[in-house]
Amino acid sequence: MVVAQRVLITGGNSGIGFEAARQLLQLGHHVVIACRDAGKAQKAVEALAPVAKASGVSVDSALMDLTSFASVRDGAAKLLARHPRLDVMVCNAGVMSGTRGFAAPQLTADGYETTLQVNHLSHFLLVHLLLPALLASPAARVVVVSSELHRKALAEAPAAAAGAGSTPGSTAAPAAPKGPDVGLATPEWLTRLRSPSAATAAGAAAVPAAESKRLSGMQLYCISKLYNLWFAFHLASLLPSNVTCNAVSPGWVPGTALGRGAPWLVRVLYQTLCPLIPFAVSVPEGARRVVSVCVGADEGAVRGRYFARGAQSDSSSESLDTAAAAELWKLSMQATGVEEYLPPQQQPQGLQQQQEQKEQEQQQ
Ligand SMILES: NC(=O)c1ccc[n+]([C@@H]2O[C@H](COP(=O)([O-])OP(=O)(O)OC[C@H]3O[C@@H](n4cnc5c(N)ncnc54)[C@H](OP(=O)(O)O)[C@@H]3O)[C@@H](O)[C@H]2O)c1
């Protein structure tokens, strides 16, 4: 018998998120879709309601715009009031902008590059805000939707391989620099993705606009998907035993609206012709891969893993760079204004603390 879980999915009104919501309802789970647009949220809930009814479960929506930390905070507070317990949280919403390398970066009102904020920073903040509900579950899961394109993060920004995001011991000859020249998890890097005014307000060095103009939407997307893995793996190492965190790639799913930033003709061709390519994944299959990490029995038994093509898989070597993940974590806390990510009683003892405690015990 299925034990009904309460699942929150960001970006649940469209593409993989919408289809995952439908499948979860069919399987007998309650679903809350987090959306930025009230009209789209209502339309999606209306479309999902018959499925929920047939399974005897509920579907509703929560409003939040991931381009705004204030909106995320407001949406999370309302959600917690309605749902003090969540069993699964899916960080699914994402954007890939059509920005070309020569165009000015698209910044949010918080002063961050939009892809970085929607795909990573706002989910980082949202999971933190919803931890009380996840910790209230006897067995909760955080599922971060990444992409195989995380492998391209350094390839797209080759000179960054020399920085903190690189794999120690890598002997690969650096390609001609066409991207940023600092590590992807360094303050210098994140500062490059901020508006000069926001950086100055925070006391950081302002970035010359020309520096920020060098990244295309694809480069930013790949980097954000590597950030998803650094986030998921580091979070998994911090969470108490009743909450797991894993990452998943749905595969290449050209039938969704992800490429909406591209010129219309490219978009239409992409969405209609690409799904016919043999290795393209259908929206239902992409969603099924996400759903299995949300509620599958085997997937619930592991933490800090990456799933691709429907099975546990190796992620890129740089995604396993724990120092870079920890550095990104620190920077993300600063960016989102989070002082303590986990409630104090849930914080795992750091290795150093454990060592100190051992030494003290030996001295006594
Ligand atoms: N499609 C692929 O080939 C593929 C491959 C690997 C990974 N993924 C990942 O799968 C996830 C879902 O993408 P998809 O392909 O299903 O694309 P999609 O159809 O465009 O869905 C993206 C969802 O994110 C929401 N979203 C975008 N910006 C937001 C914001 N500022 N605030 C709140 N919600 C926002 C969208 O809402 P609106 O409708 O209001 O814009 C939409 O519901 C993404 O994380 C993506 O990186 C996709």
UniProtKB/TrEMBL annotation:
Keyword terms of this UniProt record: Oxidoreductase
PROSITE patterns (UniProt xref): PROKAR_LIPOPROTEIN
Keyword Oxidoreductase listed: yes
Domain of life: Eukaryota
A Pfam family: adh_short
Record-level Gene Ontology MF annotations: oxidoreductase activity
Gene3D superfamilies according to UniProt: NAD(P)-binding Rossmann-like Domain (3.40.50.720)
Low complexity composition bias: residue spans: 343-355
Leader sequence segment: none
Name the UniProt record assigns to this protein: Protochlorophyllide reductase
Organism: Astrephomene gubernaculifera
Chain positions covered by the region annotation Disordered: 160-179, 339-364
